[in-house]
Amino acid sequence: MRRGVVLPVVLLVGVSVLLSAAGLFALSSPAAERGWQRNQLAQRQADIRSALEILRLHLGRQRETVLRGGVPELESSWILRETEQGALILRPVDADPSGLTSPLRAESGRLDLRVTPKEWWGRVDELAPFSAALTKARQATSVRSLLQTEMSLEDFAQIEPLLTVHAEAPELQMDGRQRLPLGGDWNSEIAARVAERFGQVASDVLADLSAKGQMPQDVGDLVRVLQSFDVPVADWVEILDAFSFGGEVARGRVDVNTAPEAVLAAVPGIGPAAAEMVSVRSSLSEQERSTIVWPVLRGILPVENFDQCAMYLTTRSFRWRVDFELGFMADDEEDFVSPPDRVRCVIDLGTPRPSLAAWRSLNLDATVQRLVMEHIARDDEEDDDAPRARQPSRSRNRPRRGQPPASDPEPVGPLRAPARSRPPNA
Predict the structure, then answer these.
(1) What is the DSSP letter of 232?
(2) What is the DSSP letter of 319?
(3) pTM of the predicted protein model
(4) Is 230 left (phi over 0), alpha (psi -120 to 50) or beta?
């Protein structure tokens, strides 16, 4: 072959090889990118689960404090691991706008959508305008279900701090033992347990009430019995702590130690006295905080009216909401290197082994809310530019037909818990 022909052939072969290599690289890059993304998402999932486990164990160690009516505490932050990017930091953020139990939020310090009597809604100024929507939400598994109604984001943000679907607690005494069941059939086993705890006279009195069909059916009835026998109020503490009615789990009771004033004021028999109750709570002793009788002992609620509210009260919130951020932070820095994951969870301390009652990602919530607010701002600008009449919408954030509610996001991809153990939404 002549020299002048060899060089073009070599160049042609070389170019072909380069193009083939480039084509193979182009084909492999998307697969490599997808693999890298899957690894990153899997790591995020593992990190979030590690953070949830840290919070579960940390709060679980303070269960006895909760049984005595106290508020558990959180560290300001935890270091999960250290990498070249920096330290992976778990940092709680304030979950209680009222500031009463910051940064935690006591779920029994709120009104439970599922069981709160409908007439209570009208007693709370913030909730009264939405009484109809709240009454219809009996089957709700999340307070965010209200956003599927005609309620706006602004209204929801105002009332959400007063509501929950997690106000439930086991019927336990201060020492963690199960309460003695009353209200059902009187039998020898219950009689023996009452006699062992309070003496034979107390057992005989309850047996007599049962024979007459006057056995107390709730805590209010029990208070009226104590009043009728002129039992000193100081002795009510142990008696009311010892008995339960209607099952092993109580739902919807309001925690007198953590509820905001507006929530307490909705409870029958409290009303305007709620303001004074909130003002003195910080001065309560540990013994006072452990009993629902403390407002009577402090002279805030009259003895003769306590039966009206007793059945709705508790001194313990076994479920606590925690909001937290999880991300990388460089040494000696207070800000995250990149936007962190934001997560909300509810930890249940009702059993000796605490559990995760609910959790979800908050990142999508923040994105959706920002987009909605931008949309509202654009609509306002269009209104200014176009003065023609337009029918106002009561809720600009309602989803279109066939689309999921934008403001009720579920954790997707790696942020979902396994199907076998996935808890309801927080």
Answers:
(1) -
(2) E
(3) 0.79
(4) left
